[in-house]
């Protein structure tokens, strides 16, 4: 039995979701404390992306409750907007606008969503581009950047909105191996600064270094949830052992 000392910033209870007839998530309980770093792992198709996308309502659940920062998600657009203001998300494929410069990619959302002035938006965007160590790329277009640089722009864009939670959905899996480290290093720094993070990743070295807790999913269920030392040192289920055997042999 887990003992908790604070209210979770993400609380999912009894959550189920279907795509048509296919039940992708099955009666999940999942919570994250403020400042906690949770790594979601599991075989392909186990429901990790779907779970993470429920947190900012990119997908809708059909059963159970999901509360983020105390706001329970339902069809109310105002609540969804409030939750999205608190939650940044970084995807596998960056999702940058190719016709906008790096600086515009980061500053335009600040003007449109947070109604900042052009000058304030650019200053904030530059602050976060510096934080991810690419201020010198501000005038370039995404097509002129490496994959690792593009992903750091995506992280800077999210951070400049000042989220309380960052979600990462396989942020390094579209990158060449030599680019992976620079993105993971950026995420490690973010974790050191105390950001609440939920990361779907197969990077088990990163998971060990950064994770407070590893959540292992299979077939739409949470099978294990344990600190890294326990999960990697002594997985309790055959399914987790088999998964670890596969990913550790690939990396
Ligand atoms: N929009 C959708 N419509 C129908 N089925 C979907 C949809 N999105 C996901 N699925 C299915 O739901 C299951 C879980 O998908 P999900 O992407 O959440 O898994 P995952 O664990 O993140 O997998 P991966 O590691 O391969 O990204 C898969 O069988 C997938 O085909």
UniProtKB/TrEMBL annotation:
<dbReference type="InterPro" id="IPR003593">
    <property type="entry name" value="AAA+_ATPase"/>
</dbReference>
<dbReference type="InterPro" id="IPR030679">
    <property type="entry name" value="ABC_ATPase_HisP-typ"/>
</dbReference>
<dbReference type="InterPro" id="IPR027417">
    <property type="entry name" value="P-loop_NTPase"/>
</dbReference>
<keyword id="KW-0547">Nucleotide-binding</keyword>
<dbReference type="Pfam" id="PF00005">
    <property type="entry name" value="ABC_tran"/>
</dbReference>
<comment type="similarity">
    <text>Belongs to the ABC transporter superfamily.</text>
</comment>
<dbReference type="InterPro" id="IPR003439">
    <property type="entry name" value="ABC_transporter-like_ATP-bd"/>
</dbReference>
<keyword id="KW-1003">Cell membrane</keyword>
<feature type="domain" description="ABC transporter">
    <location>
        <begin position="10"/>
        <end position="244"/>
    </location>
</feature>
<protein>
    <submittedName>
        <fullName>Amino acid ABC transporter ATP-binding protein</fullName>
    </submittedName>
</protein>
<keyword id="KW-0067">ATP-binding</keyword>
<keyword id="KW-0472">Membrane</keyword>
<keyword id="KW-0813">Transport</keyword>
<dbReference type="GO" id="GO:0005524">
    <property type="term" value="F:ATP binding"/>
</dbReference>
<dbReference type="InterPro" id="IPR050086">
    <property type="entry name" value="MetN_ABC_transporter-like"/>
</dbReference>
<dbReference type="InterPro" id="IPR017871">
    <property type="entry name" value="ABC_transporter-like_CS"/>
</dbReference>
């Amino acid at each position: 039995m887990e003992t908790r000392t604070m209210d979770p910033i993400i609380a999912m209870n009894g959550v189920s979701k279907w795509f048509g007839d296919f039940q992708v998530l099955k009666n999940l309980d999942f919570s994250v404390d403020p400042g906690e770093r949770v790594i979601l792992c599991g075989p392909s198709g186990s429901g990790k992306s779907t779970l993470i996308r429920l947190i900012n309502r990119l997908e809708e659940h059909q059963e159970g409750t999901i509360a983020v920062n105390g706001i329970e998600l339902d069809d109310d657009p105002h609540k969804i907007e409030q939750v999205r203001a608190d939650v940044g998300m970084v995807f596998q494929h960056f999702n940058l606008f190719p016709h906008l410069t790096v600086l515009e990619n980061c500053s335009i959302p600040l003007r449109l969503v947070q109604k900042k002035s052009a000058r304030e938006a650019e200053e904030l965007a530059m602050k976060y581009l510096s934080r991810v160590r690419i201020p010198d790329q501000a005038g370039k277009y995404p097509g002129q950047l490496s994959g690792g640089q593009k992903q750091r722009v995506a992280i800077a864009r999210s951070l400049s909105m000042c989220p309380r939670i960052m979600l990462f959905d396989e942020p390094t899996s579209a990158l060449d191996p030599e680019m992976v480290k620079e993105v993971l290093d950026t995420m490690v720094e973010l974790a050191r600064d105390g950001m609440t993070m939920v990361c779907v990743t197969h990077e088990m070295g990163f998971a060990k270094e950064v994770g407070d807790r590893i959540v292992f999913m299979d077939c739409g269920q949470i099978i294990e949830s344990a600190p890294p030392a326990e999960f990697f040192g002594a997985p309790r289920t055959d399914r987790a052992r088999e998964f670890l055997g596969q990913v550790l042999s690939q990396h």
